[in-house]
């Protein structure tokens, strides 16, 4: 999809061009905020904006993991189902530990640990199948998407797994409280984003992800352990799904077979809107953050107005997504 | 190992009785090879002789089927995938080996990034990258992405990458194939600097004069067999060629037939302006071979791509056979009988994961339609013809093109272009990576085409080639025509003077025969 | 002065929720003209996080005074709804019971276990000797489980033999597929319980294709017009249906509006029974304008 | 995702190795059939097999279109929603034409024409946005996926669009009847598959698709009009979605917002299971047919047995999908 190679000269790539490409998602975001402000006076309030950011944090954290997977030329369709199964298991673990640990933070912490561990294990599984089994990532994660989804349905016996209410009350603040008025989910999201940006830009791992996604053979010939790096991206993705679920469980206090449905699509969309290339080779964590926030704002803005029939929400969403990307891509031809 | 340790004559790296087969196909037969510190040891041989395979084995990228490798006198098994770099064995691959999305600095340090406090030391890597590029006199921003560079600049990045490593053995597989004289000389300076420090250099090239200039010893391979390892002082280009091809190679260049001064113009370019091209005008006559010389980045490729509609033209007019020709699609130029053969065979010329047949016919599928459908047997016949005509040697006809030797890929690309039966052919580095024997064949083919009344533009960084083939030579400099040489003017010195900007023809001369 | 009511329902992902959306919209249009000083904010959500987001937005940006909500997954929504209630809003919960008692001011309930039990009672009645039946379930979510449990409880102790049950995802196409395969698998089926009319419509086509219309009957649920017409016409394949009208959302909106506008005190539970629809009473349920 | 170049030997690719890679999906299919036979005696009956094939035909026809799109390095996520909107519009057109054309084949034919046209138009829209707008295919078709889905929900007013009963009776045979006992959907599927295989292998268009997917730059330098060929793949995809819908509408005579949900995933899965590479450059139409039939059989087999809890259906599906691909890929390392 990229334009032909000789188009840009070797040198002056810095000034104008890069700025526009970089600014693309930010521009879309700014326009969306402007739209929100004109539609409703309450849009640009602290309350509303923290609401939107806090609830974007699950997808956001997952999408940051997806940025690495995609940058390294992979794909993970299983994240939504994985989130569901992690949430389910976390809840079961916590409920099960109550008799021995009592109601309190120790149960919650044990549950959190279990969630992150399970995420890592799921990531290892995906990653091993892809790197050692040499099966196309699309197929592996489509498969595990079904497997994880089934598993949570099975564990919940077709119903809902609910966290013990007293434990839920202990855990609740993790979503609803915050530091200096900033809700914890936003803080965690920010921390993960900043860490992700640094890892992507300032560590060998990030550099190697881009190299692998750009040209696997070259990466291999540069004595990069392609399989290990790629495996690591899936593990990172799994752990970040775990982190996202840590924030999700106190919000809903339950998990069912419908938890996390289509999150994978939303996460990937956030990544691509943010300017990461689906074919790999180039990833931008901060872009992903912007992409996810754009997606979050679309839903919020739809709720601010009564002009568009709710039946057409999806259409509005679709148009905005296309426009957001058009803003950064369209200039190319100009 | 007690024998020759410590003496200056002892080999740093040596191979003993190396054989290699890919599947059941043998490629190397019991090769012995060694290199000493501070020495340049050249490997030559026909396309597909096994040179690249041998040096890949010597640097760990391939494992030998049998035989052993010694490093510093000890028998070793080299770690795969460039792991041998840590031991001091560095290879520049024949095919460009750069990730297109990375920057120049990223690429130079890929796999051995510099770190500070556990994080990448980006500033230092950029600084050092700039430094190496400086020593190579390459004017490329370390932050430029690889996909914005020309093939030659990419090659220079590869060289920069290799010499910036702490190499004890530096292996170079046809590093000069896309370089022009200037860059080649810069490279040689660097090689001499390194050998003076005791670095051992293995050097592959099809340009025999380079071998003569640089190497102390030459190993000749033919069909996977070791023919000889000899000192260069005892050799002449002719005797090397004799050993390589197994026959006498007189007359590398065919005699030039007299160009017909009254022949009609088949291609006229007026005041062409495009990316990398600033106001270029020239004519091409029927039956003429027009050489394009110039330094890297002088805009020769840019002219060709603008003519055939591969890149956008800002202004200027082009006429083909007297008709205005404003091609916006390559297909239009092909239909008008004008074909362009790229020099970037890997990135733009061939589908590396496909076989020979689909590659050969990709430009000319229309010719192979029967009742509206493709006829594989007709394609197969075309392939047989091309294999014969261009001496394409694939030990297995179904193999993916990416597995052919570099020279054979080049020949296939020539075949692909000639399939269009063009009246005007623009060849960009037509003999890139081709051995002398085949080169001679190709030169004869080009001359024969011209004699038939086809018109040919040869863009080449090999000055001898331009001189040996062309009726006239256009020299480009910084996107403009610096001068046009004809007849006896066509000498290396003249070309260099124009190319380097020492001499300049009157501004905006109308240059025609 | 101005009153704002938020209405939050699940997205129209199948016939019944489609009906909910339709009847909610209808009620809103009707009540907006009757009471010009009442504003409605309507949102439908495909999943719980989105539904929670919707009600958060209603509170934060639209200053609602009351919330009418049909929670897609009541367990997941409970604490979010409780927050709205704690914020001093009037809360009406529709159809699905929250996992904490006493959150809502008003509960307009459908009767999911009753839907299963009613169907079971009919099966018991027409197949007193017992017989083989198959079940096409919805999605693996709690409502489905309640209906299923209600049905299984109802046929306990009878000679009715459930050959198999599979999920048909409240979807016609899946109803068709699953039924086709059940017909392949079982040569003797006396009755089919689909617990939803969308699924029934698919199953019926499969039965017609196999030419086994006369061997069995299909009982669905929810009262979709296409099925009701068949019931009214005395179709032997669909002799009855069990009501579970999506119009309950309209009732809830009306009651809530009445409470806010005219200060009629409404609170407590309104259970809308799930009743058996037969040829005789079908006319009562037919509504030519309903898209459901 | 492909293994490194030197891994496979140059020559003996023909005999054993290629056969295995080619046979991969067929082997998986055979094993699945065997499993079906052991699980239920009615599995291998004419009736059951035609049932499965007929109902796989929609996805199958769509997946054949997707094979071209993917081979050329593209992606179309909108096919499921597109099918829904086409079905909806077809039904509305037919219902609307009854007063003027009367009950009969003319109405049905007009509806069919409308369906195919609309498919083509939708394809043109997707294709133009991607080739002329230079927006990533993933984003464009994710956007149109939402737009089309919204549109059908809007048209159906959140409910179901039903075809007039009498017209439905005229149209019904198109799904339920057949020629010499072979249902029409199977016949159409077979015809499209054979035509697709020929187009892929024996036409310039097919060759150009593979070339573009393999290396866009090389394709451009080989005088292929990359944009046009790519546009054509999306149009072909749209038209084939139209054809699939022609067979879908007579089955149940209705369309709703749930029609075609997740068909895109199923179609892409079928394509990949069949051995087409997700990154483009290599497509196999017959493989796609096998892949789609495998997916169809999985569902069928699950319905024919009682061993696996229905909660675990998805897990079974996931495992089979991974195994099916493992069968063709795994041998590489051996
Ligand atoms: N990975 C591979 N698989 C199969 N055959 C291979 C592979 N690599 C090389 N070959 C074959 O081995 C032979 C030697 O190739 P090699 O690249 O060593 O030749 P070369 O001497 O470097 O030629 P050139 O001058 O054209 O670069 C050729 O016939 C080539 O097709
Ligand atoms: N499309 C383009 N956009 C911007 N700059 C370009 C473009 N094409 C070429 N250039 C620049 O124009 C100059 C001429 O490049 P070109 O590759 O045509 O030179 P050349 O004489 O063929 O050199 P080489 O020896 O590398 O083939 C270079 O500086 C190159 O970077
Ligand atoms: Mg070579
Ligand atoms: Mg050039």
From TrEMBL, chains A, D:
Cellular compartment(s): Cell membrane
This protein's name: ABC transporter permease
Gene Ontology CC terms, in alphabetical order: plasma membrane
Classification via InterPro entries: ABC_transp_permease
Membrane topology: Multi-pass membrane protein
Organism encoding this protein: Devosia epidermidihirudinis
Xref: CDD domains: TM_PBP1_transp_AraH_like
Main localization (coarse): membrane
GO molecular function: transmembrane transporter activity
UniProtKB keywords: Cell membrane, Membrane, Transmembrane, Transmembrane helix
Segments passing through the bilayer: 20-40, 52-70, 77-97, 103-125, 137-158, 178-199, 231-249, 261-278, 285-302, 308-327
From TrEMBL, chain B:
Keyword Coiled coil found: no
CDD domains: ABC_Carb_Monos_I (cd03216), ABC_Carb_Monos_II (cd03215)
GO CC terms, sorted: plasma membrane
Broad class of where this protein is predominantly found: membrane
Domain ABC transporter: 13-248, 261-503
Gene3D superfamilies tied to this protein: P-loop containing nucleotide triphosphate hydrolases
Domain of life: Bacteria
Signal peptide boundaries: none
Keywords per UniProt: ATP-binding, Cell membrane, Membrane, Nucleotide-binding, Repeat, Sugar transport, Translocase, Transport
PROSITE patterns: ABC_TRANSPORTER_1, ABC_TRANSPORTER_2
Family: Belongs to the ABC transporter superfamily.
Protein name as catalogued: ABC transporter ATP-binding protein
Organism: Devosia epidermidihirudinis
